[in-house]
Amino acid sequence: MKKYIPLFLVVVTLFSCKMPINANDLYGKWKYIKVTNPNASPPDSVASDDLAAQAPYIQFDTNNTLIIMWGGKVLSHGKFKLDGRNIQYTESLPDGTTRTFPFWVSELTDKEIIFETKGVDGSGVTAVKE
C-alpha cells in the first residue's frame, strides 16, 4: 500500500493543476458582467445597472494587443503576453511610458473568463465572450 502513495500524489497533483492559457482562447471581445473590488474597505462591486449603462469590455487581438473599453471610451490599451495562467499586461500610458502587471486567470472557457489583479486597487472581473 505504501508504495502506491507517491503514485497517488503525482496523479492528484496533475489533475489539480490548471493548464496554461492558450492565446487562441483569449482572442475576441469579452463583455464584463461582474466587477468586484475585494480589497476595498469595505469590499465593493459595480452595480449591474452601471455595468449595463457603461458596457465595459476587454478585447484581445491576434497581434497580442488588448484594449479595455468603459463607457464608450478607451480605459486602457497595450500589449500582452502569456505566462502560465497569467496575462502579463504592459499598459501604454498617456505620457508615453508603460507599466506592466499581471491579470491572473482563475477560469477560462470558450464562453467565460474570470480574472483578477492583485494589490490594494485589485479587482476581479467576470466576462462573457461576444
Structural class based on helices, strands and sheet pairing: alpha+beta
- Under the CATH scheme, which architecture would be assigned? Beta Barrel
**In terms of per-residue confidence, which ranges show pLDDT below 50 for 5 or more consecutive residues?**
2-16
Number of domains: 1
Series of H and E elements: HHEEHEEEEEEE
Please identify which CATH superfamily we are dealing with: Calycin beta-barrel core domain
Envelope shape: globular
Distance between the termini: 51 Å
What helical percentage do the residues reach?
Answer: 10-25%
Notes on the protein architecture:
β7 and β8 form a beta hairpin. The chain is of the alpha+beta class. The longest helix has 12 residues. The chain has one domain: Lipocalin (Beta Barrel). The protein contains three helices and nine strands, in the order ααββαβββββββ. The protein has an eight-stranded antiparallel barrel.
